[in-house]
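re: ur question from earlier - yeah i can do the single chain one, its not a big deal. heres the input i used so u can compare w yours
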Amino acid sequence: MIDSVDSLLTDLSSRLPQHVLLYDVTLRDGNQTPGVGFTLEDKLEISQKLDSLRIDFIEGGWPYSSLTDVTFFQKAKDLELEHAKIVAFGSTRHSKNPVNKDPNLELLLKCDADIITIFGKSSEEQAREVLKTTPETNLTMIGESIDYLKDHGFITFFDAEHYFDGFKINPDYSLETLKAAKNADAIILCDTNGGFIPEMIEFVVNKSRQKIGGKVCGIHCHNDSGLANANTIAALKCGLTQIQGGFCGMGERAGNVDFCELLPTLRYKYNYQTISDANMRKLKSYADYFERISGFKMPLNKPYVGNYVFKHTGGIHADGVLKFAKAYEHINPELVGNRRDFTLSDQAGSASIVAVAEKFGFKLNKKDPVVKKILNNVKGRHHITDTQLYLLLAEEREKKPLPFELIDYKLMDSKGEKPRTWVKVRIEKRDWEEISEGVGPVHSFDCALRKVLSRHLTAKIEKVQLTSYHVTIHQEEKGTAALTEVSIGFRANGERGSTIGESEDILKASVPPLVDAYTYFLFKMNSHSNGI
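and the output i got, formated as tokens:
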């Protein structure tokens, strides 16, 4: 009997399968995200990353559509993967091709993958309107293609494309496509257009498994209605045991199931384990990795792994979460490798300063002169982070000498080459200069600053790694003269931080947070003496 929230959660958990397999589509479906284009080297590196996370299946791509994918499967054989299986993706034979003369299927046979997944139309409407063939021919295409691959010794999965849309219009025909795929090793139901809701997913999956049996075991959902994760959980409650998804929300249109959100939801809401807790604590770093290598920017407020989802701004929330973390956090951020952070806005009051300062061990009260001085510093700025507040507190309360002082910098005329930046830095009353080039003005400044600090400080500045660089445009109506806010994330020695700067000039917006980042960690490293 369900008479409490706890008993409800116990009942929900009991309805989930004993074990589920994770099938990653980042290299194929994710690669179809506008603006994303993985190189061969990217794909090989990503495969190893996914293997380290204990993903079960890695869909490497579609050989028929890409020469890069053909080469990937040749190279993937040399990867020393400990867990994951490499999967090649393709379609059923063309309606006009004999099965043994279809170039798509022939390339699949030659790619020497561990598993082959083919998709076929599971909607009568799609067969008529897209394939321009008869429903009967489509059934033959599905059956012959699967049998051909099986006859050549391949484990074969069947992706029933547009299955839910097709079932809604003509359930009998959609079920016939699954019967045609009866010799496949696994059948995956696809909400290709991402238009269904959890209750409909559950209804269709149950009806399909009643008619076809346990070979219907996988789910592939798109996120066009924002329900891909919820739909996947609904399918799991029906007994399905394979989840197809990817990372960071990449994929066609609104993207696919996002493991960055789904896996922690299953673990910490349904008490259902898919990957180890140790790997779950690396989830934020995995998300950051996929963001960097793909160039696809996640929303800053993305659940679990976004830079803002455990960031608290202003008095009541900051004060509350410092007193009692559950006041404004649904899980401990460290469980997914994220961190609690604080920012102060221009609306901050004395209570905000006192609350955030307490995190760093500074005992203040609202009437402390330092509080007023910091409030005056914050006013007129959109935000400062807790990292930057620490620097203000260290300077005002502890009178710590700065490890270095940026005296001047100048972006030099590059004449069509890579931009170069000159910097002058003061360390223990002595000025040092360096010039460095970079791929852009911000990068060249960063390289020049790191160069001068690494040469003239004993602290190992190379330990400080920048992990994120986000740009937010305020006052967009001003066009290229709009106010730019730059948010920078960084880490060193297992600790992470963030800093913010703003200006109408993107370089001027980037310089203060970069300086603050290095200053913070030099303070933390407790060494900033002259190394010469």
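The chain has a mean pLDDT of 89. not sure if urs matches, ping me
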